[in-house]
Every structure is written in structure tokens, then in C-alpha cells.
Protein: Cytochrome b5 domain-containing protein
Amino acid sequence: MSEATFNQTELAKYDGQNGQPAYVAIDGVVYDVTGVDAWAGGKHHGNLAGQELTKVIDEHSPHGRKVLQNLPVVGKYVD
Structure:
């Protein structure tokens, strides 16, 4: 895993807007969703990149965590 560490403020910078990459945090791991078509523009089914989305993926996502295995890990998320 990368040595980069993101808190809420740092992660929010990676919202997929204005040329920024799109990152999301799930269970303490930060993933890069920039190249995922479904996350175009930093948005995916009402969810926004640059946020911690563990509850969303566990409770509302039809695909669950299985999609995470194909995403690049860019760091860890700390509260």
C-alpha cells in the first residue's frame, strides 16, 4: 500500500473536478476511481468522489466491495 495518508480535508481535494483525480475511501483505504467510466466527473449514482464511502458501498451498493479489487490503491484514510 502507498505511504500517502489522507484525512477528510485532504481527500476532499480529489473530487474529480477541475482536472483533479477522483479518489474515494473505503474502510481506511483510498482508491483511485479516476479511470472508471461510472465515476466520470467525480460522480457515481449520487455519490461524490473525495469522500469516505464505506457505509454507502456496504449498505446501498448492488455490487458491494467486489469492485474494489480492480482499483488502484493510492493511500490510507485516517479520521
About this structure: The CA atoms of residues 30 and 64 lie 16 Å apart. The longest strand covers residues 73-77. The chain has one domain: 5-77.
